[in-house]
Amino acid sequence: MDNLTTSSLTELSVITIAIKDNYLWVIMALGFPGNLLTCFTILSIRPRLRFTVYVAALAVVDNVCLVTKVININLNQRHVNMGDFGCQFLQYWGSLTGQWANWLLVMMTAERLIDITMPLLSMRINKRIYLSLNGIIILSLLAINWYYFKVFYFNKGDNNKCDYHNKTKEEENFYFIAVIIYLIVYSFLPVLLILIMTCLIAKRLYASVSNLKRHFSVSRSALEKRKRFQRQITLMTMFTCVVFSILVIPRPVQHLFMADLKRRKVPYDENLESFLTNIFFVMSDSSHAVNFYIYFLCNKFFRKQLYEKLNNLIKAIKTCPAQSPQFSNLHGRYTRSSWTKQTAI
Known about the structure:
Shape: globular
Structural class: mainly alpha
Order of helices and strands: HHHHHHEEHHHHHHH
Radius of gyration: 26 Å
Number of strands: 2
Number of helices: 13
């Protein structure tokens, strides 16, 4: 029985190590090009709305977060001496970009809610107000995550990697409080706000379509077109919210639970804890890679724009001739027509 248990623990440890060493590369391979395609598609849409700018900004921040996580985990796995500041900065920047991405999703949902429920107010809110609100959020996140420079350090002992101070009772209590603040800012508060706003959006959309049909003489085709468009946006927002909640919530809950166990020095299975931690990290980090696929599956207009832009790009590449005098001279001013006229002379 003991041999069987030992064998199971060994297999679990091997699986845990395999996940930890490879999962970020898989997420990076799926998420990085997907986020680039999101920017490529959404920024080509005219007119450029605040909602589309938020979508593009979210894709950029998601990619920055993924790159930071890949750099951080690989430097730690290879035991590269980053020094205290390097360790603290990578932890700080990874946490900041992860939280920033979640709050961009909050702002994107809030912008959509205001646009639907209070269109007059939405028109009065100018770019300066939106930049100010986003600036307040960014400055708040910068201040909240400053504790990484107090908690983390580079352990030059046996581990030779980033670690956090937990030697004294005061350090343990400080770290526990910092974890609680991190969990509230990273997941609980964004998820709560997004769920509330998504429900309000869905309720308002249903009421607006009903009122439109009842009070205005709109042709059936126009009404159906409006309903389809609003349904796509609602479905995309709600599905994004559901996926975000499922992926993000487990890791902070487990983090809080384990921090409490360690603070109270309650015994636990370290192999199982390590396995679950890595699984929840996979889920949490996947939230920075799945948005493109949600947009693609839930929004017909996004798919149409993506197909159109990719087809135009492919056609442009195929029809682009090799560099020749037909298209450029030393000053880069020849065109096909001007070259034809000159050769005819």
